[in-house]
Amino acid sequence: SRLEGANKFYGTGILVTEDTFKQLNYRYRSRDVDLIQVKGKTHPVKIHEILDHYDVASFPALEQVIGRFNEGVAAYRHRDFSAGLAAFSEVLGLHPGDQLARLYVERCRKFITAPPPPDWDGVWVMTSKS
């Protein structure tokens, strides 16, 4: 139920935890969404968005979007917010309705202006289930 609420927050359709992702027998098209700590839990988990239900008509340039998005997440987690912003902005150019990329553009802009503290670990704390 916590990931269902996270879907609303991220604008995604299908989210799975890292543990579930590793257990999948088939390699699904996916992207690394975030490191989150959900309400009621003390440890963060990595979550992935499964994207195999999209086709070329519903999500043009999907493979390019996945690649640039994952590069953006890597830059973001390494505190290179300018490179992250460039990658996420490119994703929006390829797929303008990408709410998740838009969220990361906002985060990167915020952290370029006001960097996180030195002990920042990239974990997003979910304060509610929805």
Keyphrases for this structure?
single chain; 130 residues; alpha+beta; 4-stranded mixed β-sheet; 5 helices; 4 strands; 15% strand
Q: Would you give an account of this structure?
A:
This protein is an alpha+beta fold and about 130 residues long. Helix content is about 45%, strand content about 15%. The protein is built from five helices and four strands; from the N terminus they run H-E-H-E-E-H-H-H-E. The protein has a four-stranded mixed sheet. Helix 4 (about 80-95) packs antiparallel against helix 5. The protein is globular and about 40 Å long.
User: Whole-Å distance between the termini?
Assistant: 9 Å
Low-confidence stretches: none
- SSE series: HEHEEHHHE
Give me the number of helical elements.
5
Q: What fraction, in percent, of the residue positions are helical?
A: 40-55%
- Sheet with the most strands, sense and barrel status: 4 strands, mixed
Number of strands: 4
Strand content: 15-25%
Biggest β-sheet: strands ordered side by side in the sheet:
1-3-2-4
Shape: globular
The SS-based structural class is: alpha+beta
The averaged pLDDT comes out at 91
Using only CA atoms, what is the Rg? 14 Å
